[in-house]
Amino acid sequence: MASAKLPKRSKNRQRRTGDAPQTLDTYDQALQWLQGHYNLEKQLGKDETTPPSLERMTLLMELLGNPHKDIPAIHITGTNGKGSTSRMLVELIGATGLDVGSYTSPHIDSVNDRIMIANQPLDDESMTLALSEIAQVEQWVIEATGEPPSYFEILCAAAYNWFAATAVDVNVIEVGMGGRWDATNVIDAQVAVITNIGSDHLEIIGPTLVDIAREKAGIISNETHVICGETSSDLAGVIAAVECRDIWHRHQDFDASEDRLAVGGRLVDLSTPYGVHEEIFLPVNGAHQTENAATAVAAAEAFFGRQLDADIISAAFADLALPARFEIVQRQPMIILDGAHNPPACRVVAETLFQDFATEEQPVLVIGVNRPRDPQQLLDALNAKEFSKIIATAADWPRAVPADELATAIEASGVVVEAVPRVSDAIDRAIEISGENGTVLVTGSLYVASEARSQLVETSR
């Protein structure tokens, strides 16, 4: 993507005498500066005691001229499926001829993945410029609040600012965690999507599922059209109780009425209040992706206020790619990557593997887990005893459970396990065990899937 000229500062953003804004001249400098900020993703489960607030983020956006108010947005939250639904929405809206910016987390290949246009990450030069704009106003945030913005706030602000500078037509924004107090929630989105409600992060946004539903419903305003993918009546009722412009519920207003396994993906029928789309081909794996596709089509049609043409949907999904979402990155042996990190996500991965990809030989599992996850819950969801061998590993990540500690926990399940500390070595060992005709599943953490993907994609080039 060509570098865009960034907007001029408004009068209320003139530099004060004595300020010393950070200068970021290179991509490496920009990343080093970014990494020097508090990162909740690395600290999750350790010190979430600070009262939630959007004060820093709101001020940061004011200093940038409130660029998030310039572009209509679709805001997506939920326990699982946010990333897939986001990418589908970008393709659907993009297929109509509009330019779509998207913000998502965590990243898979590089931090640039978090800020994308047309599902393509910013190049290094653009990312450097985007972060530089935030560095220029950071000192004002510190002076006003006593604290610098966080890692996530910086990236979110950089995304909103860059999208305004490059004049995209629509923003598709994925919540990091929860909704109400998430840094992304400075926007008033035209459409709010809640994919589902699960027990992830109970210790932070719980302690009950009803509490989580309320937090996620915090992205709704009275001008929002809500797409509710949660089907539990109690939890959907919490969402429906929030004042909004309109609300569509899964199985009532939108759905996947047919879902058939096809070569290279699935053939589905999708319906919304505007009508039915028959025999849409999805080039992705897993029945759960059909639900995500139904949600994405409903959100896109709610956004436009009309039914999308069938050729638009077909064209959008023809180009669909979902990195690290049951992604087959190698065929001999077949190596599958999935960033599943909680029991519901692991359950659908196991269903897809054993139902859609059944083989005579048992597959090999490479798994890494981050704290505060319970490894046993993930193993139960994955049907651990169905694997010929399990290789416990750990991503290069502060919250990663060490491989030997994870192996000890796995042994209690009565399955054969081997500890291999580094992900790259774990992949090599799995390939050795499985042989050319075997199958390897790599999962348990998006960070594990990311490291594996980096190794395998680079090898295949």
Q: Report mean pLDDT, rounded to a whole number.
A: 91
This entry's quaternary arrangement is: single chain
Query: Order of strands in the sheet with the most strands?
Result: 4-3-2-5-1-6-7-8
> Helix fraction?
25-40%
Describe the structure.
The chain has 461 residues and is an alpha/beta fold. The protein folds into two domains: 11-318, UDP-N-acetylmuramoyl-L-alanine:D-glutamate ligase; 327-460, Protein-Tyrosine Phosphatase, Chain A. The chain contains 16 helices and 17 strands. It has helices spanning 27-35, 40-43, 55-63, 82-94, 124-145, 151-165, 202-205, 209-216, 233-240, 288-304, 310-318, 343-356, 375-381, 403-411, 423-434, 446-460; strands spanning 73-77, 100-103, 115-117, 120-121, 170-174, 191-194, 225-228, 246-249, 255-262, 265-272, 275-282, 327-331, 334-337, 364-367, 389-394, 417-422, 439-443. The strands form three sheets. An eight-stranded mixed sheet has the order 4-3-2-5-1-6-7-8, sandwiched between helices. Strands 12-13-17-14-15-16 form a six-stranded mixed sheet. A three-stranded antiparallel sheet has the order 9-10-11, covered by helices on one side. A hairpin with a 2-residue loop joins strand 3 (115-117) and strand 4 (120-121).
